[in-house]
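dumping this here so i dont lose it
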């Protein structure tokens, strides 16, 4: 998977058509897996032990960005898995750090849409590529250690 991601990253950087958004789709599947793993962990160990509302929101916003669909504030707050006031506080911090942008919906002026900034999207691309590299190294290490045994 790492080789595929590197190829798609190169395609995306050079502007050749095959890698455009394919890398985002690959990484969005990793983000979905991470969300599912986090939900399974909370189900097994309890909700109160593990809480990272900002990360939960960012993962969901990354997937939404890849899908081309900004999320309404209400959906982002729900994705955080935390009380509304806590989630709103985290949203403010994310906005101050330049990771999210809030825009009024063109269809309904009462709705505020939230999406990742280019900066945050780029950070996610790097994060997931690094994560794949670490997994690849771990697998290589497993192969070597199994030969020793």
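and the seq i came up w/
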């Amino acid at each position: 998977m790492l080789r595929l991601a590197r190829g798609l990253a190169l395609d995306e950087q050079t502007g050749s058509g095959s890698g455009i958004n394919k890398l985002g789709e690959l990484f969005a599947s990793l983000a979905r897996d991470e969300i599912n793993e986090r939900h399974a962990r909370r189900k097994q160990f309890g909700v109160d032990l593990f809480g990272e509302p900002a990360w939960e929101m960012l993962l969901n916003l990354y997937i939404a960005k890849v899908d081309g669909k900004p999320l309404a504030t209400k959906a982002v707050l729900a994705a955080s898995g935390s009380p509304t006031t806590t989630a709103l506080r985290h949203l403010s911090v994310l906005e101050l750090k330049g990771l999210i942008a809030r825009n009024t919906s063109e269809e309904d002026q009462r709705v505020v849409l939230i999406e990742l900034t280019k900066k945050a999207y780029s950070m996610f691309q790097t994060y997931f590529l690094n994560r794949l590299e670490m997994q690849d190294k771990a697998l290589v290490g497993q192969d070597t250690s199994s030969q020793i045994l």
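The CA atoms of residues 44 and 123 lie 30 Å apart.
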